[in-house]
Specification:
By secondary structure, the protein is α+β, with helices and mostly antiparallel strands. The protein has helices at 41-50, 65-78, 86-94; strands at 2-5, 11-13, 56-57, 96-98, 106-108, 115-116. It has 3 helices and 6 strands, in the order E-E-H-E-H-H-E-E-E. The longest helix is centred in the middle third of the chain and has 14 residues, at 65-78.
Length: 118
């Protein structure tokens, strides 16, 4: 989910692309969680669409991607695609500002919530 769309730039857009790697090396914090057997990208897309998560409005400060990630992880957990408790762990990690480069520490930061459009 990334901002920059709509007349005010606050509408989010989901971009799905194929990559040859499991995760980006360009990160300061990595969280891993085992997925259920048979989970596919299509199942995740279907869940996002079914729950209306593709219709997201960022805050006026262009924040909200951390909240969107938490909500989608919560949806995956509720659907049984990942184990219970993962969403709570993700929220704890998202509630911190992770300094660059990786390993430089972190500090508390409020997770600002955008809104889901009808």
């Amino acid at each position: 989910m990334a901002p920059g769309y709509g007349s005010d730039g606050l509408r989010g857009k989901v971009k799905i692309s194929s990559k040859r790697y499991s995760y980006t090396q360009n990160h300061v914090k990595k969280i891993t969680m085992p997925a259920s057997l048979g989970l596919t990208v299509q199942k995740i897309v279907n869940l996002v669409m079914h729950n209306g998560r593709q219709k997201y409005q960022f805050t006026p400060e262009w924040e909200g991607c951390r909240y969107w990630n938490y909500v989608v992880i919560s949806d995956l957990e509720a659907a049984g695609y990942i184990s219970k408790g993962n969403a709570k762990s993700v929220l704890a990690a998202l509630s911190l500002y992770w300094r660059y480069p990786a390993g430089s520490g972190q500090e508390p930061r409020k997770v600002k919530e955008g809104t889901f459009r009808a």
